[in-house]
Amino acid sequence: MTSPPITLPFAKGHGCENSFLVLPDPDGRLRLTAETTRRLTDSHTGAGADGILRAVRCADDPEAAAMAGAAEWFMDYRNRDGSLGAMCGNGIRLFARFLVDTGLCAPGTLAIATRAGIRRVRVPSRCQDLQGPVSVAMGTPLFPGPDHITITTAGASRPATHVDMGNPHAVVFVNDPADAGDLRTPPTAEPADTYPHGFTTEFVAVRGPGHLALRVHERGVGETRACGTGACAAVAAHRRRTGQTGAADYHVDLLGGRLHIAVLPDGDMELTGPAVITAQGALHLPRTA
């Protein structure tokens, strides 16, 4: 006799068309495997998404228990290929929107735990049609080096800048984002040991003062419509390249829309953009999964 499938509640949404499944698991009972993650994010076997955001209370997850005093909720982020993610700028804004829209948190500033540490997200009061801008404090970009990195994709090799936004990025400047060519194949990096856990690549064009445009190949996913940490990494690399200092505002155009980045006087960045819940329902998995 066949056992009934497991039913998982979920929400689906996007930040600048960077799509995610949110799985509410407040008591930490769900154990996601890489295979299950790939099944759920696949458009044929699941609901289709760039990644999964499991919403679990810090106190009920061993990985986040040490942060329970600073944040109630932990964003357990998984890439589409099942690998763990430390931080996601679009994902955390959608995560916060979900917590507010479902009544798990009140509007305002939320402290959310991630594998990259605590991030503070500002969610306004519930907006019509579950839409509205959400902002997140992204911290200060780091430049781990080495100074000379080469990224190769579609047969072309270009210099890149290594930027750490809580996750690793390689930022490449081009005349036009289309110059990146086909991004279905992951770019490669030299020196090969620069990114031991993989990396996300941004191909960035300068459109004008305070205005960048980019395409992105996300680690563990492929080309996506947008990347929040990638947009911040692009701004950081641009400022370093041009010697800019001090507070400034930028807007970054991606395939999925526009993100706004404010660089504060102390060098910290704040990322603002859309966070939209598009569907809620239940996913059904074979009990063996």
TrEMBL record:
The keyword Cytoplasm applies. It comes from the Bacteria. It catalyses: (2S,6S)-2,6-diaminopimelate = meso-2,6-diaminopimelate. Signal peptide: none annotated. The keyword Ribosomal protein does not apply. GO terms for molecular function: diaminopimelate epimerase activity. InterPro entries: DAP_epimerase_AS, DAP_epimerase_DapF. Keywords: Amino-acid biosynthesis, Cytoplasm, Isomerase, Lysine biosynthesis. Substrate binds at N18, N79, G89, N90, N167, E218, R219, G228, T229. Its main location: cytoplasm. This is Diaminopimelate epimerase.
